[in-house]
Design brief:
Layout: E1 6-13, E2 19-26, E3 34-39, H1 52-65, E4 67-72, E5 78-79, E6 82-83, H2 94-107, E7 113-118, H3 120-128, E8 136-140, H4 149-153, E9 161-167, H5 175-181, E10 189-193, H6 203-217
Parallel strand pairs: 3-4, 3-7, 7-8, 8-9, 9-10
Antiparallel strand pairs: 1-2, 2-4, 5-6
Helix pairs in contact: 1-6, 2-3
C-alpha cells in the first residue's frame, strides 16, 4: 500500500559522466526529519531500487515517520523506473554512484543523511560511507564479500553511527560469524533478528526492518503504527 507522499523522479549525474535513474519520496506536507539513501542488493542477482524493502520504505516512511527516501539504480541496473547508464563494476566504480546520491541530497538541503544498504548495498555503505557527509549507515543482511578488514577499520576513524541487522537464517553471514567479523569495528550495533532470512520476505520481517530504521533515524516515530491515520 502506498501512503501519501511527494514523489520526484530524478536523474543523478556521476562525476565519471553517467546518468542514474532515481526517485525521491518526501512527506506530503511536512519537511523531512532525516534522509535515507537506499543502496540496493546485487544487480546481477536481481537487485534494484524497487527491491521490496526499499519500495515499501518509500511507500510508508514519508507518511509514517517523516523521512525522505532517495532510491536509485546503480550503474547498469534496470528496474521498472528505468535503466541507469554504465555497467556493473563489482562495487568499485559504484562509489561514484553513492557519491552522486549524497551530493544530490546535500545540494537539496535534505537533513540528517543516512546510508541504508541491503546485501550488496551494505558493501557500498561500508566501503565509502566513512568518506561521505552522512550521519552513518544501516546495514541489512551484510554478506561481507567485498569489504576488506582495512575498510571496516576505517569506521573507527570517523564519528558515524553504524547499525547492522543480521538475519538468524541468513544465507551468507549468520549472527555468530557476524559477531566475529565485525569485531574490528569498535562501535557497531549488531541486531540479530530471529527467524529472519537474507531477503526479509514477509510482512513481519519488513515491519522489523522498517521499525529498526526508524528507531535509528527518527526515534520519535518508533515503533511504527500498524495502521495509517491521516
Amino acid at each position: 500500500m502506498e501512503l501519501p507522499s511527494r514523489r520526484i523522479p530524478l536523474r543523478l549525474q556521476t562525476r565519471d559522466g553517467l546518468t542514474l535513474i532515481a526517485e525521491l519520496a518526501l512527506p506530503e506536507s511536512k519537511e523531512p526529519v532525516a534522509t535515507l539513501i537506499m543502496l540496493h542488493p546485487l544487480p546481477t542477482a536481481g537487485g534494484f531500487m524497487d527491491s521490496h524493502l526499499y519500495r515499501k520504505a518509500a511507500n510508508r516512511l514519508p507518511a509514517l515517520a517523516d523521512l525522505a527516501i532517495l532510491r536509485f539504480n546503480t550503474r547498469g541496473t534496470t528496474s521498472p523506473h528505468g535503466t541507469s547508464e554504465g555497467s556493473f563494476d563489482g562495487g568499485n566504480a559504484e562509489r561514484y554512484d553513492v557519491e552522486a546520491a549524497v551530493a544530490y541530497a546535500i545540494e537539496q538541503g535534505l537533513p540528517n543523511i543516512w546510508l541504508v544498504g541491503w546485501s550488496f548495498g551494505t558493501e557500498l555503505a561500508l566501503k565509502y560511507g566513512p568518506d561521505l557527509n552522512v550521519q552513518g549507515a544501516i546495514l541489512l543482511s551484510p554478506p561481507l564479500h567485498r569489504t576488506s578488514v582495512e575498510e571496516l577499520e576505517r569506521w573507527n576513524l570517523v564519528d558515524k553511527k553504524l547499525v547492522a541487522l543480521i538475519p538468524e537464517l541468513d544465507d551468507y553471514l549468520k549472527p555468530d560469524e557476524a559477531a566475529i567479523r565485525f569485531l574490528v569495528i569498535k562501535a557497531i550495533e549488531l541486531i540479530n533478528v530471529e527467524a529472519a532470512k537474507h531477503l526479509w520476505v514477509g510482512e513481519s520481517a519488513t515491519k522489523r526492518v522498517l521499525d529498526e530504521i526508524v528507531r535509528v533515524t527518527n526515534k520519535a516515530c518508533y515503533p511504527l503504527p500498524d495502521f495509517y491515520t491521516p
